[in-house]
Design brief:
The chain is mainly alpha-helical and 317 residues long. It contains eleven helices and no strands.
């Protein structure tokens, strides 16, 4: 098998050059036949492919076309020049008419001034100067007033900016004190922080009410009442102040005043209802019928228990 494949490969190597040479000879033969056919066709021609008359006609047409283009160029140039001349003529006429009318106007104004009584150029000059001076003075006065107004506005805005800056600094300081009060765990410490807040802003009703709450924790109800009244003078719609006032009156067994102030607090915000139900400071009002009616609970007895019983309930709570 190996010998047969070798013989086949040898035969293919010998036949390939012969096939290539045969194909090349065929192509050469075809080209020679085409060239011979072209020569025979040329030899058979009886007339030339063109005549001198056609060439002359083409040359005459080209000459006529170039002539017409030159004439058209000359016509366009002439038209453009004519338009430019017309435009220049109109401009010169307009300028001449304007100057003429201007001199007519000056002559008319001069005649009017002479008729009015200004008989000389000096009078006209002095009048013009006086009028110009008056107008300039008016303008200067107006601009001075405007500048003065602008300066006042700038100074006022500067004062507002400084006031706002001071207010921002004060607010930041008060905010830091509120955060500090939230971290305090003793009533005395909270009261000290609230005093610092009130020292910075005396009309802070929230600080007064929170101070009243801390004072109640120290067992000073009358002090808390005074603080709540001060907060209500600042803001009559301060619900927290009414609530703290109710707690202070309840600690003094002033049941009616406590319920009245609690009702005002609930009118301002119903959120105090849940707080009042869980607040030990109001445990003495649980059996008071107006309180039960206000809170929507059932009363056990017509009168609240005595002070010792209320204290016992508070301690148990």
């Amino acid at each position: 098998m190996r010998g047969l494949s070798a013989w086949l490969m040898l035969a293919a190597a010998l036949l390939l050059p012969l096939a290539a040479s045969a194909q090349q000879e065929a192509q050469t033969r075809q080209e020679e036949e085409k060239q011979q056919a072209a020569e025979e066709h040329v030899n058979k021609l009886q007339e030339p492919l063109y005549t001198p008359f056609v060439e002359r006609y083409v040359l005459d047409e080209l000459k006529q076309l170039r002539k017409e283009m030159a004439e058209q160029r000359v016509a366009i140039t002439q038209e453009v020049v004519d338009r430019q001349i017309n435009a220049a003529d109109k401009a010169i006429t307009y300028a001449t008419d304007t100057v003429t009318y201007f001199f007519y106007l000056i002559a008319g104004v001069s005649s009017m001034l002479v008729i009015v009584g200004w008989t000389s150029i000096r009078d006209i000059k002095e009048k013009v100067h006086s009028l110009a001076t008056d107008e300039v003075n008016k303008l200067v006065t107006q601009y001075e007033e405007r500048l003065r107004s602008i300066e006042e506005q700038l100074s006022e805005k500067t004062r507002h900016i400084e006031h706002n800056r001071d207010e921002i600094e004060l607010t930041q300081e008060i905010q830091s004190l509120w955060l500090r009060a939230g971290r305090e765990h003793t009533p005395a410490g909270k009261i000290a922080v609230y005093d610092q807040i009130l020292g910075l802003r005396r009309d802070d009703g929230e600080a007064l009410t929170y101070k009243a709450d801390a004072v109640l924790e120290l067992g000073e109800p009358q002090w808390a009442i005074n603080l709540c009244l001060q907060a209500l003078e600042i803001d009559p719609e301060n619900g927290n102040a009414y609530y703290q006032l109710a707690c202070a009156h309840a600690s003094q067994e002033q049941w009616e005043e406590a319920v009245a102030n609690l009702a005002r607090a609930l009118d301002i915000s119903s959120a105090y209802r849940d707080e009042a139900m869980d607040d030990p400071a109001l445990d003495g009002l649980v059996e008071f019928p107006p309180f039960a009616e206000l809170m929507g609970i059932q009363s056990v007895s017509a009168q609240p228990a005595d002070t010792s019983a209320a204290a016992a309930r508070s301690s148990s709570a």
